[in-house]
Design a protein that fits this description.
The complex is a heterodimer of chains A (96) and B (645). Chain A has 96 residues and is α+β, with helices and mostly antiparallel strands. Chain A has one domain: Ferrous iron transport protein A (FeoA) (SH3 type barrels, Roll), CATH 2.30.30. In chain A, 21% of the residues lie in helices and 31% in strands. In chain A, strands 1-6-2-3-4-5 form a six-stranded antiparallel beta sheet. Chain B folds into three domains: 2-213, P-loop containing nucleotide triphosphate hydrolases (Rossmann fold); 230-271 and 296-375, no CATH class; 460-644, no CATH class. Helix content of chain B is 59%, strand content 8%. Chain B is built from 28 helices and ten strands. In chain B, α10 (275-293) packs antiparallel against α24. The longest helix of chain B has 42 residues, at 230-271. Classes of the chains: A alpha+beta (96), B alpha/beta (645). Chain B: This is Ferrous iron transporter B. Chain B: One of its GO terms (cellular component) is plasma membrane.
C-alpha cells in the first residue's frame, strides 16, 4: 500500500463529530474577530488539505483583512498568515 | 514561486553510484532550498522525474563516512497530494528501498503544522531527522522551543539550523554521515485528523514549545501595503517603478553593448582580408549576436527585481492583491506571478506555472504566457515604431512612441487574459476545482546570495540561447541571403558592375535562396503589405523574435551599409502588384506590430511547453491558433490604419 492510499484510507470522516452546538462558516466571520475552528462542512481532498495547512479543529482563527476587491481573505491560524478565497473559507465551520 | 530560479548553475557533479541517498522534505517557505544549497555548496544536478514535468534536484555532500547524495524534493504541505509536484514527494518516499533516510525541514514558527508533515513522513518507516529552521525568528517573536526535548517526544533527532550560519549546517552534515544510526520512534505517530491534533499537542508540550507572537513588523507593513486604497496605489506604483527600472536603467548599458559590437564589426570588416569572410563575421556573427546580447542588462535587471520582490515577501502580497483580477480570467493570484515573469521571457513564465496546483490553471496560464510582451519583442517594436512615428511627435503630454509602446504592452496583457479565460473554459469543464490557498511569508530582507543565484541562472540560460539557436539561425540566414556567391561574368551579364560592392550585394540578395523562399510565401502575407524581404524576416523570427531585427539589418546593410536605417525606411517593393511603392507604409508597419503581438514565433518557448506538458499537442495548438489570430488581427490593423491614413 502506498503512502497516499494509506492516508486517504486512514483519515476518518474529519472532525464533523466535533461540530456540536451552533457554528458559522469562516467566510462570515467579521475581520478582527477570533473564533475556534469546529469542523469542515464535508470530508474530501479540499477539507483534508485545509487541515494540513493548519486549519485544525480546536485552533483559534482570526480574519485579518479582505483584499481590495472583497476576495480573497487573509487569516491568521496556528502562527501563520494564510490567504483563502471565500469559496474555501466557506468550507470551514467555526464555533459562533 | 521559487521554481523559476531554483539553485545555482554550478557544474554538474556526477552523483556517485552506490552512495546513500537522503531526501529533503518540507513545506514551501520552510527554508529547504537554502539548506540544500548550504549542504551541497551549489554542486546541484538538475534533471526531471521520469514521465512528469517536475524538476529534480540532487547534490553531493561529503561526510566523514564518504559522499552521500541529497535529493531536494518539491515543497509540499502534505503527502496527501493535490498537485504533480506533491505526488512526486509521496512517490519518492514510497520507493523507500532507494532511500537511506529522510530529512524533514520544519519552520519553527509554525511547528504545529510542521509536526503534521513529520507524522506523515514517518509512515514511510525510514530513518528520519527533523531540521528546525527559523528558530531565531521564533525567539525574536517571543516564542520558545527545546529541540532536544522535542526530539525525545518525537523519537527522532531534532537539529536547529539557522540560515546563513555554518554551525547548524556542519552538525547536520555530521549527522548525515550515518543514517543507520538515527534513532527511530518505537510507535508510528497517527495521521487521522482528530488523533493528530492530540498527538501534536502532547509533543509540543513535551518540547516546551510556546508559539511566537504575531510578527508586529509584518502586521504594520501589511496594514499599509495591503490597505484597500494605499495598498492598491503602492502596488501600481511598484509595477510602474518595476518597468521604469527595467527600461530606463538598462538603456545606457544597452547603448554601450551596441557601440562595442558596432566597433567590433567595423574592425572585422577592415581587418579581415577576404571580403566575404569579413562581411560574414561582421554581419552574421557579430551583428546577429550583438543585436540580441543588448537585452542581457534588461534580463539581468528583471531577475534582480523579481527575486528582490520575492525574497522580501512582496510578490506573495502582489499575488494576493491581484487574485480577484486573475479570477475574472478563471485563474488565481499565483498565475499573476507567472504572467509577470513572462514580461522578461515566456520561458521562466511557463516554468513558474509549476507553482499552480491545478493542472488546468497551469495549461491556461501556459497558453497565455507567450502573449505577454516579452523582452524579445522589444527590439522589434523599437525598430518598427521608430519608422512609424518620429521621436519628437507628442500627443498631449506624452511622446507618441512611448504611448504606442505602452499600448502594445496593454494589448499583450489583455490578450493574455482573454486567452487564459478561453483556454480555462475549454479545458476546465470537468473535474473538481482545486482549493486556492497561499501562505503569506513574513517580510524578510532578501538574501544577496539568492538574488545573485537567480540572476546568474537567468543570464546563463540567455547566453546559452544566444550561442546556440540564435547564432546558428543567424549564420544559416546569412548563408541563405548571400549564397550562392556570384561570379563576375554573371554580374556583368546582368548589367551589374563587379567593382560596385553595393550593387553586387543587392543583386546577390535579390537572387538568393532566402529571396526564393520569401517570394514563395508572398501570397500569404501579401494582404498584410509584407514584401518578400519582410517575409524572410518573419520566417527568421521563428528562431527568436529578435532575429527579425538582425535580418532586416542584414537586408538593409546590403542596400546601404553606410546608413541602413534610412535604407530600410526607403525600401520599395521590387515586384508584385505594389512594385515601386514603399514597403514600410503606416498600414504595413501597424500590421507587422500587431502580427508580433500575437504570433508564436519562438522555438524555445514551444520546446519548453513541450517539456512542461509532456506532449507536442499543446505547443502545436499554440503555434497554429496564435498564427491564425496574428494574421487576422494584422489584417484588421492593416485595413483600419489604411482607412485612417
Amino acid at each position: 500500500m502506498s503512502l497516499v492510499e494509506r492516508f486517504v484510507s486512514r483519515r476518518c470522516a474529519t472532525a464533523q463529530a466535533l461540530a456540536d452546538g451552533t457554528t458559522r462558516s469562516l467566510d462570515t466571520l467579521p475581520v478582527g474577530v477570533a473564533a475556534t475552528i469546529a469542523a469542515f462542512d464535508s470530508d474530501d481532498a479540499v477539507a483534508r488539505r485545509l487541515f494540513d495547512l493548519g486549519f485544525m479543529p480546536g485552533e483559534p482563527v482570526v480574519p485579518l483583512r479582505r483584499a481590495p476587491l472583497g476576495d480573497p481573505l487573509m487569516f491568521r491560524v496556528g502562527g501563520i498568515e494564510i490567504v483563502l478565497r471565500r469559496a474555501e473559507a466557506r468550507r470551514i465551520l467555526v464555533a459562533a | 514561486m521559487s521554481h523559476a530560479h531554483h539553485h545555482g548553475g554550478g557544474a554538474p557533479v556526477a552523483a556517485p553510484t552506490g552512495a546513500p541517498r537522503i531526501a529533503l522534505v518540507g513545506s514551501p517557505n520552510a527554508g529547504k532550498t537554502t539548506l540544500f544549497n548550504g549542504l551541497t555548496g551549489l554542486r546541484a544536478k538538475t534533471g526531471n522525474y521520469p514521465g512528469v514535468t517536475v524538476s529534480r534536484y540532487e547534490g553531493r555532500v561529503d561526510t566523514d563516512s564518504g559522499p552521500i547524495v541529497v535529493e531536494d524534493l518539491p515543497g509540499t504541505y502534505s503527502l496527501d497530494p493535490i498537485s504533480p509536484d506533491e505526488e512526486i514527494v509521496a512517490q519518492v518516499l514510497d520507493e523507500a528501498a532507494e532511500l537511506a533516510g529522510v530529512v524533514v525541514v520544519v519552520d519553527a514558527t509554525n511547528l504545529r503544522r510542521g509536526l503534521g508533515l513529520v507524522a506523515q513522513v514517518q509512515q514511510a518507516a525510514l530513518p528520519t531527522v527533523v531540521v528546525l529552521t527559523f528558530v531565531d525568528e521564533l525567539l525574536r517573536r517571543g516564542g520558545r522551543v527545546d529541540p532536544e526535548r522535542l526530539g525525545r517526544a518525537l523519537g527522532v533527532t531534532v537539529l536547529p539550523v539557522v540560515a546563513g550560519e555554518r554551525r547548524g549546517v556542519e552538525s547536520l552534515r555530521r549527522v548525515l554521515a550515518g543514517p543507520s544510526l538515527w534513532p527511530t520512534p518505537p510507535v508510528l505517530p497517527p495521521t487521522a485528523p482528530d488523533e493528530v491534533v492530540g498527538w501534536a499537542q502532547s509533543v509540543l508540550a513535551a518540547g516546551h514549545f510556546a508559539p511566537p507572537d504575531p510578527d508586529s513588523r509584518t502586521g504594520r507593513l501589511d496594514g499599509v501595503l495591503l490597505h484597500p486604497l494605499w495598498g492598491t496605489l503602492i502596488f501600481f506604483a511598484t509595477m510602474f517603478a518595476f518597468f521604469q527600472t527595467i527600461f530606463a536603467v538598462a538603456a545606457p548599458l544597452q547603448g554601450l553593448i551596441e557601440e562595442a559590437f558596432a566597433w567590433l564589426g567595423e574592425l572585422a570588416r577592415s581587418s579581415i582580408p577576404v571580403e566575404w569572410l569579413g562581411r560574414f563575421v561582421a554581419d552574421a556573427i557579430l551583428a546577429g549576436v550583438g543585436g540580441v546580447l543588448v537585452f542581457l542588462p534588461q534580463i539581468a535587471l528583471l531577475f534582480v527585481l523579481i527575486s528582490l520582490l520575492e525574497g522580501s515577501g512582496y510578490l506573495s502580497r502582489a499575488a494576493y492583491l491581484m487574485d480577484r483580477v486573475m479570477a475574472s480570467a478563471g485563474l488565481e493570484g499565483r498565475a499573476f506571478v507567472a504572467l509577470l515573469s513572462s514580461m522578461a521571457c515566456a520561458i521562466p513564465g511557463i516554468m513558474a506555472t509549476r507553482t499552480l496546483p491545478s493542472a488546468k490553471d497551469r495549461l491556461a496560464t501556459m497558453m497565455a504566457a507567450p502573449l505577454m510582451t516579452c523582452s524579445a519583442r522589444l527590439p522589434v517594436y523599437v525598430l518598427l515604431i521608430g519608422m512609424l512615428v518620429p521621436s519628437d511627435v507628442r500627443w498631449g503630454p506624452v511622446g507618441a512612441q512611448g504611448a504606442i509602446m505602452f499600448g502594445l504592452y496593454l494589448l499583450g496583457a489583455a490578450s493574455a487574459m482573454t486567452s487564459a479565460w478561453f483556454w480555462k473554459r475549454i479545458v476546465g469543464r470537468s473535474g473538481m476545482g482545486l482549493p486556492f490557498y497561499m501562505e503569506m511569508p513574513s517580510y524578510r530582507l532578501p538574501r544577496l546570495r539568492t538574488v545573485l543565484i537567480s540572476v546568474w541562472d537567468a543570464c546563463a540560460a540567455f547566453l546559452r540561447k544566444i550561442t546556440s539557436i540564435i547564432l546558428v539561425t543567424t549564420v544559416i540566414l546569412w548563408g541563405l541571403l548571400n549564397l550562392p556567391l556570384r561570379g563576375d561574368t554573371e554580374l556583368v551579364a546582368a548589367g551589374v558592375d563587379p567593382a560596385d560592392s553595393v550593387a553586387v550585394t543587392a543583386y546577390t540578395l535579390d537572387h538568393s535562396a532566402a529571396a526564393a523562399v520569401g517570394r514563395a510565401i508572398a501570397p500569404v502575407f501579401e494582404p498584410l503589405g509584407f514584401d518578400w524581404r519582410v517575409n524572410v524576416g518573419v520566417i527568421s523570427s521563428l528562431a527568436a523574435r529578435e532575429v527579425f531585427v538582425s535580418t532586416m539589418g542584414q537586408v538593409a546593410a546590403a542596400t546601404d551599409p553606410e546608413n541602413p536605417t534610412a535604407a530600410l525606411k526607403d525600401m520599395t517593393h521590387t515586384d508584385g502588384p505594389r512594385a515601386g511603392e514603399k514597403v514600410f507604409t503606416p498600414p504595413t508597419i501597424a500590421a507587422l506590430l500587431i502580427f508580433f503581438v500575437y504570433a508564436m514565433q519562438c522555438m524555445s518557448t514551444l520546446a519548453v511547453m513541450r517539456r512542461e506538458t509532456g506532449t507536442w499537442r499543446w505547443p502545436l495548438i499554440a503555434f497554429v491558433h496564435l498564427g491564425v489570430v496574428a494574421w487576422l488581427m494584422a489584417f484588421l490593423a492593416h485595413t483600419i490604419v489604411g482607412v485612417l491614413t
